[in-house]
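Case study.
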Amino acid sequence: MAPKPKEFKDDFWKTKDFKISIGDIIQKEGTESTDEPLVPMGPTQKPNVTDLRSWDMKLLERYEPFYAPLCDMCCLCTYGKCDLLGKKGACGIDAAAQQARTVLLACCIGSAAHSGHARHLLEYLIDKKGKDFPIDMGTGIDIEAPIMRTLIGKTPKKLGDLKEALDYLEEQMVHLLSACHTGQEGSSIDFESKALHAGLMDNLGKEIGDLAQIVALDMPKGDAEAPLVELGIGTIDREKPVILCIGHNVAPGAGIMDYLEEQNLEEDLEVCGICCAAIDITRYNKNAKIVGPISKQLKFIRSGVADVIIVDEQCIRTDVLEEAKKNNAVVIATTDKMCLGLPNKTDEDSDKIVSELVNNQIEGALILDPDKVGEVAAKVAMKTSEGRSKVKVLPDLDEVVELAKECTECEWCDRVCPNSIPMMDAVMAASKGDLSQMQRLYDNDICYSCGRCEQECPRDIPIISMMAKIGEINLQDQKYNIRAGRGPVQDVEVRRVGAPIVLGDIPGVIAFVGCTNYPDGGEEVAKMAEEFLERNYIVVTTGCGAMTLGEYKDEEGKTLYERYSGSFEAKGLVNMGSCVSNAHIPGVAIKIANIFAKKPLEGNFEEIADYILNRVGACGVAWGAYSQKAAAIATGVNRWGIPVVVGPHASKYRRLFLGRTDKEESWQVNDLRNGEIVNGEPAPEHLLYAAETIGEATVMTAKLCLRPNDTSKGRQLKLNHYIDLHKKYFGTIPEDIYKFVRVQKDIPITYKRDIMKILDEKNWKPRKLPQEPSLMDMKGD
Ligand code: SF4
Ligand code: SF4
Ligand code: SF4
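After joint prediction, the assembly is written out as follows.
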């Protein structure tokens, strides 16, 4: 009998870089049959909370947690409140550990949101298609589930196989959440290690969710030519009954599209969405439309366009019912995550539910059956739409001016705005008939319509409703195209670009992800993406970030999706899909390690992460990260060795991972080719970095694509972009450039003279180039 995976202890795996062909080593754990191909199994199949701790310690030693406490108090137990400023709490915890505990809690919440979503989807799809429904991603994708293969050590063949991975991650999440209890973990570093584990579980949960929906709902399978779909408030035909889906779970939206198709009603109703539910519905059926990212939510609800609002899970306004009531829209809640106090009508006859909703006998309904949601939503929308269109929901433009005149210039709106927006000036301008300031805040999502200012206004000025009305002035222009989410990168694409990425000829892979609480609107993000596309980087994107990139047009009226190819190649703009599709970002880095470098995946997390950290020039940009999911996503990709640049609001997550360039010893690497420990360089310099301005973010992103493995040609190219961008935004050659020149051949020709001058000043000496840089097998391992 083949040895159990864990019997291959460290000594075997410390010889990390010899090549093993699939099929050489052992039988997969849990497989009885000898017919199944044998796979090599690494040391960490189904890693427990502490199994990857030694890798975390390597990361955390190099990238020290930097805490920016948002609050010095803890009020988690009845010993408290405890003031932790320079003191310990009554349970003995100190401020750093408490901050790290809060980070872990956020990562647990975010990760649970994704895995709860995945669990819902999987149960629903197994119910619909059966547990034996094949996981077939088409001929272009052999590595269907790179994260699962690395962590679980198995390739899922059928929908039912995904359950094992979910069971595993749910068990891990219970342990992680339990560590947040009073009187458990007391070390900030160990809390961080657990947060990294929570992030990793987040990655796994997303992969399970997206894989299940791609195969069972026949979404694009890595299709670079996925269709362009409509995006923007202006694309919604307001003459038709409108169903709006808000949230992240495709199932209710798919139920609606199916019902419309069955009943030949596709032309008669509009189905649109906000947030990732929108993206995923368009992956399922291109006739659906995307209103936009989360920043559109309150404005669009207030506009009264939607007759029926379907809410599923995550990032939905919790006062949606109250808001919908203001304009007689009907709310249907569809998951156990958000029941809103509504009566559970899941088992009732559809027509009876419709009648109760239309006649206002119930204030909304909880329906946990996505197919029933489809029928009820369509029938209610058709019955209520005509009557509702007579309801005047927004003030007209004259009324907007009159309402603005109520302003007493108390400045409360400015003070409470999380984005420090000068709303009072905009309101005062409106009171004089000048609506341009409010329109500017609306058009570019500079105001992300959280509604705090309106809540605080002592004059009850309906600021969001006024903005929604002003936004209608140029409704016709708010029409865009976005490429439907294509899902993962195909293996064949990885084969084409793996070498140029690892060697540095393609300067980097930049992932634009996250929410839309941008400090100064979304246009900056689109311009940043354009900057990198023009410089031959590969740009990938998901979720609200993907929508933001679609909301800006060039002078010819084309969006980035219409200007750049959807292929995973230099100058390609790859919309992978929704939040759960985020899993394909570490997924493609894992595929590079496997396909290009032949690194075995199964049970082999640390070697794969080490490869990515040292050799795959990828960097995430979450300029508007807002939710706990974003915290989990960033922390998860960090554990794979992918750095992330976040926007200024992200300091509210409380923790960054910053490299210390002054500590030379922390940048040493092991050259696996000869086992020599050599002085390295701060590449990548940080794992999680908060930038204040878009210029700083752009420059840092280019810098964080540097990897110790770059060839001199690749390094020249990367440094060229780093310097170019630094000059563009700061007007100078970066002062730290000497740290990234290893040998003279690394110096970009265009800047040679300037750089040589800096090198002389710094008494620079050439360094040895490691052939196979690694953090593994360093002293202390
Ligand atoms: S958990 Fe500890 S720090 Fe927090 S309130 Fe309780 S005793 Fe105080
Ligand atoms: S809605 Fe929120 S983001 Fe917009 S101005 Fe008001 S407080 Fe600021
Ligand atoms: S809070 Fe209201 S009254 Fe005060 S400045 Fe803002 S809009 Fe004017």
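Observations recorded in class. The radius of gyration is 26 Å. The chain has 28 helices and 21 strands. We will return to this complex in the next lecture.
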